[in-house]
Design goal:
By secondary structure, the protein is mainly alpha-helical. It has 3 helices and 3 strands; from the N terminus they run ββαβαα. Bound molecules: zinc ion (2 copies).
Length: about 140
């Protein structure tokens, strides 16, 4: 067999089940893998069809992509935490507004003064509207 990259005659090689003449010597396979390319993926048809890959080259590839995978996992974790913090803050503000409304409502009920109650309702609705606006801005940005 002939390696399709270095054209050396080779006895030990990997190949693709789809492509004819896609033979690689283990040295060329190693060079390919060190460019952070999956040795299982055929460089011609881009399918996961390469067979007889040198186990050492699989290990090289796995050791190379491990830190990359770790970084992407960390990024995902941070995003989840940020979303959780945002949700907690929103909940706090919302609960504060509800508590404020209950306090105002109780006060107005105690006073038994209808106009005062309506004014408080308007104040509450204004605060609530501003809260929704703030929420909308945060979600959009
Ligand atoms: Zn070669
Ligand atoms: Zn192929």
């Amino acid at each position: 067999m002939q390696c399709c990259i270095c054209f050396e005659n080779i006895q030990h090689y990997s190949s693709c089940t789809n492509c004819i003449d896609a033979y690689l010597c283990y040295l060329c396979e190693e060079k390919w893998t060190k460019q952070i390319k999956d040795p299982n993926i055929c460089f011609i048809c881009k399918e996961n069809t390469r067979i007889n890959i040198h186990t050492q080259n699989i290990e090289i590839y796995e050791s190379m992509i491990e830190p990359i995978l770790q970084i992407s996992i960390n990024i995902q974790h941070n995003e989840v935490n940020e979303n959780l913090n945002l949700f907690k803050n929103c909940l706090k503000i919302f609960l504060s507004i509800v508590a404020l409304y209950i306090i105002f409502f109780s006060l107005s009920y105690l006073i038994d003064y209808l106009d005062f109650y309506i004014i408080l309702l308007i104040i509450f609705l204004t605060i609530f509207f501003l809260f929704l606006l703030w929420l909308y801005i945060i979600i959009v940005s």
